[in-house]
Design a protein that fits this description.
0% strand; elongated; mainly alpha
Length: 260
Amino acid sequence: MKDKKIPVKIYIMLASAIICILIAWGIVYKVIKNHSFVVAYAKDEYLVENEEKLLFLNAPESYLPYYNLGNVSYNQKDYNSAIGYYAKALTLYPVGQKECDIRINLALSMCNTIDFQNLSSQEKVDTALIILYKARDILLENGWAAENPEEAKDADAQQLKEDIDRIIEQLENPDNSEDNDEQNEEQDQDQESDSDDQNKSQSEREKRQKDQLEQKKKDAMGERKQEQSELEKRGKSSSGNAGDDGMGIEEGDGGSYSPW
């Protein structure tokens, strides 16, 4: 009796099924790992070692672990490492808003490598300008930011680009910046002076109104006292006449005058 041979097609199908299962398991594993990293990241817990294991063959989103590790480096103020991770993430074809987020974080990391408090020489200023222009170009690429704000794809990218433009303007034209600062300071002083004058004028007006009210009160009190005195005199006069002809108002009949 001859043994039946298993067709080669069966072996191929089994092998293909096993490969598909392994690929699917790998994808599920990486998705779970990335999710756990994000959850821990939100709690300021950085599972760097776990994420580094996903740097290779992280299909379908190969850029994701680089982006995550870039965020960790950024929060730890290791901006040079963050730049490396974000730059690598951009080479792995992120799409849509994810690309924009990577570009914004990369530009921010580059700007944060500049020590703006220590630009003591022209060489340092020139180096800072080179970095700023590179960060600016990263935002302009693919239209996330634009020279015309209305053409920008993303508001945050556009805002960062405009902030960088202002810094570039200040570094390239420090004299204009100082003049603007002086003008702003003078305007502030003028506003303060105007405000002081207005407050002073208002205070004087309130004082005059207060004095007028006090004077009116005094006049009213004087008039009342005068009327009271006259009424008291009349009461006394009535009381005196009552002794003469018995026609006076007796106490308790409403004939006594009380002050206002």
